[in-house]
Amino acid sequence: MPFRVCFVCTGNICRSPMAESVFRARIHEVGLAGLVEVDSAGTDGWHEGDGADHRTVSVLTAGGYESGHRARQFSVSWFSRRDLVIALDAGHLRTLRRLAPTPEDAEKVRLLRSYDPSAGTDLDVPDPYYGGIDGFEECLRMVEAASDGLLDAVRAALEGRAA
Fold this sequence. Notes:
Number of helices: 5
Distance between the termini: 15 Å
Radius of gyration: 15 Å
Largest sheet: 4 strands, parallel
Strand order of the largest sheet: 2-1-3-4
Number of domains: 1
Low-confidence stretches: none
CATH class: Alpha Beta
Mean pLDDT: 96
CATH superfamily: Response regulator
CATH topology: Rossmann fold
Order of helices and strands: EHEHEHHEH
Helix content: 40-55%
Structural class: alpha/beta
CATH architecture: 3-Layer(aba) Sandwich
Strand content: 5-15%
């Protein structure tokens, strides 16, 4: 059974699809594509069925990442089918932990930037939606910086499963 990671932001059109694309690329680069599944969702359903924001698509394309995406809302039932639920900011973290049906499910919820040792104490990936392209570029840098640490954590979890 694959290890499953879901990235979650508010509307699933900016930050979480960006994190999904970047992390999926990392998984492919290291040959874990068959062992790890990656997806994303929003805490709210405002944009369900929509593609990613055009600025998200622009920075992903410029960075060499895939950008095909359709927004959807996170469902409580998904906790049973996800090993990690990665929140993009503290508000998402609180919302997801409140939704978690069990304490074990709440433990699956982590902040993305907690995997970036250089992040310091500011672990939020800020919402770029109301700003310009520079905010999306900054989000991409933050996501990329945290992805290596997340990849290390997923590798360790896979090794733990094999033991």
